[in-house]
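To assess whether ligand presence alters the predicted conformation, the chain was also submitted together with zinc ion. Input:
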Amino acid sequence: MPLVTSTEMFKKAYDGGYAIGAFNVNNMEIVQAITEACAEEKSPVILQVSKGARAYANHTYLVKLVEAAVAECPGIPVALHLDHGPDFATCKSCIDGGFTSVMIDCSSMPFEENVKITKQVVEYAHDHGVVVEAELGTLAGVEDDVKVSAADSSYTRPEEVQEFVEKTGCDSLAIAIGTSHGAYKFTADQCTRNEKGILVPPPLRFDVLEEVSKRLPGFPIVLHGSSSVPQDYVKMINDNGGKMPDAVGIPEEQLRKAASLSVCKINIDSDLRLAMTGTIRQFMAEHPDKFDPREYLKPARANIKELVRHKLKNVLGCAGKA
Ligand code: G3H
Ligand code: 13P
Ligand code: ZN
């Protein structure tokens, strides 16, 4: 089947109490790992491309890689989404260039400015059969070249969401309820430590999610910054020359709970990076004589695939929903 929008995926996910995984793609191995896992688990999927990914790999290469994956995995719905579109021009370029979904992220701007630019993107996107994700509230962490400190992040204000959705006509809304981008989602002082000395983060603000959902019944909500930062991969990195002290993510059971509520799209990037980097670091340490990139990219791809399968089955709940 050709690339699809996320409209049907979200409707089924909302009604079925699960979420669609939105995984960031930057190269062939990552595209293959995600889509092979989804094909084997019969799962719909959103492949998303950031501004940084377009700068790294080139728009055309990424679209062609995704088209190749669609041809190889004909049985599953695949949407191609722009992650954190910074302005109208970037969104337009992706809408004109084959994407089926875009995010316009003006969450750091004042409310009225956010409404104005989001509305402009929605009008252009809808004229071209493309859907739009917008954002209210600010997440902490790093995305592209923008770094938001925990102090500058802010939860979504539920009293604003209805007016925002009505005025902009956006198709889904990313909200801030305590998730954060990257592998260091919380500082040590925001967390407690368990008996192994591993940081335990503060719980997500399900009260904010509930308030938002009450005001937007049936409307798909999106969670960014939803990597769980698997400690096995953090250890693999640290045991093989890496240095990632106190990397911490969102506990999987909280994401499962969010997926059972109004959250229909859950964004995961950092976990894939950790799986890839940990695997390659270990391979390099164990095989200092090897220099064929295929030899280390192959196990890295296999481990990303295994990680995605786990997310689909045990976290998102979208396995078997294609
Ligand atoms: O939200 C950010 C995503 O993880 C994409 O990261 O901008 O480094 O490609 P990137
Ligand atoms: P993570 O850094 O938690 O993987 O979040 C990714 C994301 O939100 C992409 O938009
Ligand atoms: Zn994000």
